[in-house]
């Protein structure tokens, strides 16, 4: 009797390739956690390759490739659940008819179902490995690179109330002036005076200018992508999102237009490997306020105003707060995610309640950040205040 060979998953070249890919990406992740100098080198020298290849390729498409892939994934997952048994049954019938005609004695039903499941499983495995790999190389590793403060500011600086008040006063004063200089539509919303293409070009120029101070920001930038499902995005209270698996900077089209420049520059920071949220907030701020365009400047100042105002309420005595410059009514109206009318439109289209969607998003963001070593999770967004204080203490602005 012929001895039956024992099956081993590693005998398959396909399985060995999958295992190698998983081990490689895992090793890169572990290395980034333990060797900061390697991660800094990777972000500066290797990461731009992904922006210049995958980002450039996805930039050829007018819409968000990442959003399309997510939608396709949802459709395919539904198809797997509801349609695969139907198609598998059809293939079995066709194979059985062919077997009868050819006089074959095999069992086509068993072989056909096994074949369809085998290739289906392989596709799922490679999709998961691709996501794991791109998330690792284009996102997770950068959480462990040197911070902006470590590289460019004084990490031992002790900022207090005077520095906070100084930064707050400058931001509020600039916002109050710019509120009267930007163009507005019939509804009174601050809008950009040019086309979307011109706005994108202005954001790219603003970010590339920052590349002189922060080398990671130099080089190629793809066009930002508007998200079609912006109403659902609004329910998550998201202004923008970066897709590591397509290297795209995406933004919400429902929010007030004045939020777009700072949001695009924020997401562009991620595209360049500056993955920490407080740093992306900061880079979006400085890129906008140092640009030549008043609309970008206004967007930049508004992007940090609420963070500074919140810290002022926490840290500055009430009697001192009373004497500070106050934001005008127009600035307060502009410094909002959505207008009341926009929220009403979002709620009309909502399939799931905004409260549920927002709660799920908060859990996801908190989990993602803490898993990658950001101990304070979503609270880390507010650390942009320290960077703004450091900026004003290290920069002489020309009024």
Would you mind describing this structure in some detail?
Helices cover 63% and strands 4% of the residues. It is built from 17 helices and 5 strands. The chain has helices at residues 13-34, 36-58, 65-82, 84-101, 108-138, 148-152, 161-178, 196-210, 230-235, 260-271, 277-289, 294-315, 318-321, 329-334, 340-349, 354-371, 384-394, and strands at residues 183-184, 190-191, 225-226, 240-243, 248-251. Helix 1 runs parallel beside helix 5, helix 8 crosses helix 11 (277-289) and helix 11 (277-289) packs across helix 12.
Question: How are the SSEs placed, and which strands pair?
Answer:
Layout: H1 13-34, H2 36-58, H3 65-82, H4 84-101, H5 108-138, H6 148-152, H7 161-178, E1 183-184, E2 190-191, H8 196-210, E3 225-226, H9 230-235, E4 240-243, E5 248-251, H10 260-271, H11 277-289, H12 294-315, H13 318-321, H14 329-334, H15 340-349, H16 354-371, H17 384-394
Parallel strand pairs: 3-5
Antiparallel strand pairs: 1-2, 4-5
Helix pairs in contact: 1-5, 4-5, 7-12, 7-17, 8-10, 8-11, 10-11, 10-12, 11-12, 11-17
């Amino acid at each position: 009797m012929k001895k039956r060979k024992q099956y081993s998953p590693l005998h398959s070249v396909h399985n060995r390739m999958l295992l190698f890919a998983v081990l490689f990406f895992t090793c890169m992740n572990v290395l980034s956690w333990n060797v900061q100098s390697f991660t800094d080198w990777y972000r500066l020298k290797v990461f731009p390759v992904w922006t210049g290849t995958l980002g450039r390729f996805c930039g050829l498409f007018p819409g968000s490739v990442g959003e399309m892939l997510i939608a396709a994934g949802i459709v395919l997952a539904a198809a797997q659940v509801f349609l695969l048994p139907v198609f598998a049954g059809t293939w079995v019938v066709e194979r059985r008819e062919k077997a009868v005609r050819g006089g074959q004695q095999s069992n086509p039903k068993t072989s056909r179902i096994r074949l369809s499941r085998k290739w289906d499983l392989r596709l799922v495995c490679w999709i998961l490995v691709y996501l794991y790999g791109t998330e690792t190389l284009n996102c997770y590793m950068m959480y462990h690179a040197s911070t902006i403060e470590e590289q460019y500011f004084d990490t031992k600086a002790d900022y207090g109330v005077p520095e906070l008040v100084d930064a707050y006063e400058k931001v509020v004063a600039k916002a109050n002036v710019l509120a009267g200089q930007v163009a507005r539509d019939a509804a009174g919303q601050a809008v950009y005076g040019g086309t979307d293409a011109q706005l994108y070009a202005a954001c790219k120029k603003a970010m590339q200018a920052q590349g002189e101070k922060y080398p990671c920001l130099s080089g190629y930038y793809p066009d930002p992508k508007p998200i079609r499902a912006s109403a659902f995005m609004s329910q998550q209270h998201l202004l923008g999102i970066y897709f590591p698996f397509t290297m795209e900077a995406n933004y919400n089209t429902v929010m007030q237009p004045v939020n777009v420049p700072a949001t695009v520059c924020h997401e562009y920071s991620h595209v360049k490997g500056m993955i920490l949220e407080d740093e992306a907030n900061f880079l979006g701020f400085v890129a906008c306020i140092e640009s030549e365009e008043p609309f970008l400047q206004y967007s930049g100042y508004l992007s940090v105003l609420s963070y500074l105002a919140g810290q002022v309420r926490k840290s500055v005595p009430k009697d001192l707060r009373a004497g500070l410059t106050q934001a005008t009514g127009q600035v307060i109206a502009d410094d909002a995610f959505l207008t009341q009318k926009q929220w009403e439109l979002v709620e009309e289209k909502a399939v799931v309640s905004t409260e549920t969607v927002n709660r799920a998003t908060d859990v996801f963001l908190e989990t993602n950040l803490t898993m990658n070593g950001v101990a304070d999770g979503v609270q880390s967004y507010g650390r942009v205040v320290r960077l703004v204080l450091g900026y004003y203490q290290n920069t002489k602005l020309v009024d």
